Amino acid sequence: MALAEDFGSNRAQISACPACVVVPAAERIAALRAERAGRIILSLPNAGGAQSISTVESALQALPGVISARVNLTQKRVSVEAEGTVTAAQLIQVLESQGQEAHELDPGLLSTTETDRQGRDLLMRLGVAFFSMMNVMLLSVAVWSGAEDATRDLFHWISGAIALPTVIFAGQPFLKSAWASLRLGKLGMDVPISLALILASSISVYETWMSGHHAYFDAAVMLAFFLLLGRYLDHRTRAIARSAAEELAALEVPRAIVLVDGAEVETPIAAVATGDTVLVRPGARMPVDGIVLHGASELDRSLLTGESLPVQAGQGTIVSAGEVNLTGPLTVQVTAAGKDSSLHRMADLVAVAEGAKTRYTSLADRAAKAYSPLVHILSFSAFGYWMWATGGDLRYAINISAAVLIITCPCALGLAVPAVITSASGRLFRKGLLIKHGTALERLAEVDTVVFDKTGTLTLGRPDPVGLDDHPRVSVAVAAALAAGSSHPLARALADGAKAAGIDPAAVTDIREVPGQGIEGQFHGVRVRLGRADWCGASPIAATATYLALDGVTHAFGFTDRLRPGAEQAVAALKAAGMKIELLSGDAPAPVRDLADRLGITDWQAGVLPTEKAARVAELSAQGRKVLMVGDGLNDTAALAAAHVSISPASALDAARVASDIVLLGQDIAPIADAVRISRQATRRMVENFLISGGYNIVAVPLALVGLATPLAAALAMSLSSITVSLNAMRLK
């Protein structure tokens, strides 16, 4: 046993080859011990603030064998470098002792990086463009003030020395995108942008070389700055979003304890095969799909199915990956593992649904599709006309063509959506909502149907004892003493409820947990029990309850799921806004009916499986409805990803939060109704911005076409339209 325990602490890799079956267990364990573990990644769903960082890092670094621990608060993860003797289970135990919930992620399944390279790159280019723009504008002021001949040419050359490298460097995102579009035979929004940058720079070089009176280096750099500003704002609205399918897959248990010749071999989940026998200890998540061979326990399926109460498990019980084993060890025969498990199949559902959602076209994309060809037609038409009208004056025709390109440059169009989203996101953040997806607000404004999960969404997912005052004080004290010795959710809630009521636990001795049944002990020489109704000799009541057998008398302690703050207000406000409301839960019919009646929801379903939730959302979508899904568990991830737009609480599992477009940061769910209202306001602002941009073009383009606007004047007018669009967006605040 000691050998097995010592081996169990190693994070080694083993082969999945058939020959391993005949290798003596002792030799395999010795070989595996030679391997050393490296990086362990844990998810911290409830981490927040500098104090959490300090608590987590100091607690982990105090554990022998831990080399370093680094918390990423944005992603709510901690990355631990440790020696081979340190296991993820030990790290999780240390964090739980500090009050931090944690569970392991598989580093091999996480492709997301911890650094935002694209954001840093855009910000760096934006800074360079701003610095250059300020300097070139200063030099331009000297020219506008009356500098002539050699002095003017000198200032132009200095401006060019600053502007040309800036345009080449800062314009890379647009130039590369434009080239990629042209190679595919398309005219994307970046094609006219790139042409405007190239033409403004080329004309300026030519004018400077020919000692012309006007050069437009300031226009080129100004264009680059405002365009990068729009691109960076757009990027920031999308930066938090990650692939829910990858995050969900990473939540799978990375290793399983496989029983080989009586020895416990910790094996990578990819090496576990159908027919293997695995051991699942109390408190551990189920690593595979399978059938229980030996043992009795209770399973917490709330994350997978939404069931608020644990279910009994014994010989012959079918189990699924992701369930939590609560009270006793289970020996399970594997029926599916890794990519074949039910949890991985759920991840595939999420991936498919995410792919469908990303095909949603934003307002800006739809506008750009019609806008880009029109810009090129106007610019080339102006060039052709003035070449004919001036008898072949190439210099004059190119100047007008460039002015048209610059004045119609989709800078305001590029800012129209990001500026509004940034403004609306700030307003919603102050109300406790975090926007993750760039098109979430536009989609939320179209919603006409809201589908709620129950456990953990409309309720807090935590049972509360009711009517403790109706029981004798001594019975509550005995029940509290027994409950303190169990990790069962109802037992923990009962112990906490008794403590809150000021009732101290009784002096119960010889406490032990009977897997799948409850807890028993000795009180004044008499055996007492707390647990299942039949085990305690009680008749079950209709409500959720646990039972106490004391002195030949049974007491039923009832529980209710605590309603999430703001749930009644949110449902009432959404109904008042004309929304259709549905409640889909994996829980039993009785608690679902009670909650639906309390909130006034007439359309509800109980016992709904994860695939059925996703199918219902798809069915509503097929009927032409725009669905907002609000959920928090693994059982909700496929439906969250399939919905037109989705929201999850911050207390939700990582996978649910990542599958969602919006995260509710606080416990109060009332701001969901505010989010719908603000999203509709934001969409109106976006449309107004497009009208402002269009109106500007109606006035400015004719001036450029008839030669009344130089490229510099065009750049100034373009900047004015961009500022106007930004100010209109700020009205949301």
Task: Draw up the topology in text.
Blueprint: H1 2-8, H2 25-33, E1 39-43, H3 50-61, E2 66-72, E3 77-82, H4 88-97, E4 103-105, H5 117-144, H6 149-170, H7 172-183, H8 190-209, H9 217-238, H10 244-250, E5 255-260, E6 263-268, E7 277-280, E8 289-294, E9 297-300, H11 302-305, E10 311-313, E11 318-319, E12 324-325, E13 330-336, H12 342-357, H13 363-389, H14 394-407, H15 411-430, E14 433-435, H16 440-444, E15 449-452, H17 454-458, E16 459-466, H18 473-483, H19 489-500, E17 509-514, E18 518-523, E19 526-531, E20 545-550, E21 553-563, H20 567-576, E22 580-584, H21 589-599, E23 603-605, H22 610-622, E24 627-630, H23 637-642, E25 645-649, H24 654-659, E26 662-664, H25 671-705, H26 711-730
Parallel strand pairs: 15-22, 15-24, 22-23, 24-25, 25-26
Antiparallel strand pairs: 1-3, 1-4, 2-3, 5-6, 5-7, 7-13, 8-11, 8-13, 9-10, 9-12, 14-26, 16-21, 17-18, 18-19, 19-20, 20-21
Helix pairs in contact: 5-6, 5-9, 6-8, 6-9, 7-8, 8-9, 8-14, 9-15, 9-26, 10-12, 13-14, 13-15, 13-25, 14-25, 14-26, 15-25, 15-26, 18-19, 20-25, 25-26
